[in-house]
Prior knowledge:
The structure holds two protein chains of two kinds. By secondary structure, chain A is mainly α. Chain A has one helix at residues 20-28. Helix content of chain A is 22%, strand content 0%. Chain A is extended. In chain B, the strands form two sheets. A nine-stranded mixed beta sheet of chain B has the order 2-1-3-4-11-10-9-6-7, sandwiched between helices. Chain B is an alpha/beta fold. Chains A and B meet through loops of A and loops of B.
Amino acid sequence: VANVHVGRLVELDVPDAARVPEMCEKLLANPLIEDYEIVA
Amino acid sequence: MKFGVVRFPGSCDDVDALLAASRVGEAELLWHADRDLRGADAVIVPGGFSYGDYLRAGAIARLSPVMEEVERFGRHGGLVLGICNGFQVLCEAGLLSGALLPNTSLRFTCRQVELEVVNASTAWTGACAVGDRLSIPAKHTTGRYWAPDPVLDELEANNQVVLRYAAGENFNGSARDIAGVCNAAGNVVGLMPHPEHAVDPLTGSADGLQLFLSAARVPVG
């Protein structure tokens, strides 16, 4: 087995998607130790 | 010296921290939903859990009303000690550098560890001498201290590494054997092992009391 990845999926309904990067930086991810990707 | 001990939903070492602090001063619990530090001269963010830690250890707690005040308090020179989950909360809040990752074993581990005092001039280690060994318990799954190398270099250059695991004791895989760090001013300290569980020889060691005695010695006001 190679390239196994376990991650966290956070699903959000938001009225303004422009705020999502800020949400990721401040709470949903810890940028020091976690990468994140936003999928609309 | 009056200690305030934060209680989050899920805290489980708050009472031991309260009892440990009571040995050297006054101590009172601080409720997570209050913004009132009740006149505390020193705040302890205890171990256990907080809000379930579902998102990431300490991530929700750092946004609690009481932590807004603790953050302000710490940034203005107030004495703050974060133990275990409390250390994770202080890192998430940015009061301390770095982060805590899962132990390299990926398992919860509970054991007595030997620590070496690296910096004896912080508010929480002033009663120790550099090189002192403290025997105190550690119990966690997410306790591997990590920061990027340049940050670790800076911490070491500024004498912000407060405690290290002694040789052969770094069971969680922490970077550079770091068990505890402080902020630049030395008033905010965080560590993974639990000094509040080592305050009476009856339970194996009273070495942890040194941290509480250190804070109690700091002039109030």
